[in-house]
Amino acid sequence: MQVALHGKSFSKDTFPFITSLLHALIKYEATLFVSQPLRTLLQSSTIQLPAMQPLEQVGDCTHLGLMISIGGDGTLLEAVSYVGASETPILGINTGRMGFLATVAQKDALAALKGFWQGQYALDKRTLLQLNVCGASTAETDFALNEVAFLKRDSSSMIAVHASINGELRTKYWADGLIVTTPTGSTGYSLSCGGPIVLPSAHNLVITPVSPHNLSVRPLVVPDSAVLSFKVESRNQKFLATLDGRSRVTNTDVELTVKKAPFQAHLIKIDQNNLFDVLRQKLHWGLDVRN
Questions:
Q1: In a domain, 243, yes or no
Q2: Counting CB atoms within 10 angstroms of each CB, which of 142, 184, 227, 288 has the fewest?
Q3: Which CATH number do you get for residue 92?
């Protein structure tokens, strides 16, 4: 089987674990591919590296049987960008902090890898967002697992975002930005801006304003079958379009469309923990001095 690994930063204490993981993959006779950030990181260590091929082209992983993300949730989001529409299963090993998506602890990683090799796992299929950017000279498509956001640049004044649902103008947001999130992303940026937590199995998207000028404007839950269209106004004619933290400066003369992508992210699930288990662990739900 062809297996790719991605990571971008670890403490020195993590390298022995990386060594054991590589040895396990060699034992399973896996053909190894490695992302450039991880290759650079490993070459700076004293690890004796096995033969590994570069994973150069983002979004072209149709040849892979497994993608392993080593890090936190941000690293796993980057792994999703490598996988793209191939829907390669992703095993998220958590060496970071939060671990909403990368849920496999280091101590359980080798057992999880063995479980995958023996077929003892489930696929947690998560909705992705597709962003289309159309302008006078551009036509771009990109995707995100957590959220698509349109944000003001630096310390400039707020932006105005015209929002339409299925071609019908709904409202105009005056705010620092606007977030469109999947159920997966509802526990991320949107949550910090007052958005609701949505179960991963729900067929919904959430539109959440960032620091809106009009305080009566609240997050809006819409079906994931909706096609969302946006037009941004800004005094300096530019704003930031971000997808899972990947940002690019965008001109206000473009038209933006956000909808559910025709493919999903396939996250490997070894145990039977659900979202409420994760919320209790990560957000300390239910913890009280009286308990």
A1: yes
A2: 288
A3: 3.40.50.10330
User: Is residue 235 helix, strand or coil?
Assistant: coil
Q: Where in the sequence is the domain holding 252, given as residue range(s)?
A: 129-262
Cβ-Cβ contacts under 8 Å for 221 (sequence gap 6 or more): 196, 198, 204, 205, 206
The segments of the chain whose pLDDT lies below 70 read: 56-60, 98, 136-141, 155, 272-273, 287-291
Structure-token pair, residue 18: 């990386």
Q: What pLDDT does residue 80 have?
A: 93
Distances (CA, A) of 133 to 60, 120, 203: 21, 41, 24
Strand 246-251 with 238-243, pairing: antiparallel
CATH number at residue 175: 2.60.200.30
Pairing of strands 2-6, 159-165: unpaired
Give a yes or no: residue 288 inside a domain. Answer: no
Catalytic residue among 13, 60, 73, 108: 73
Considering the domain architecture, whether residues 253 and 135 belong to the same structural domain is answered as yes
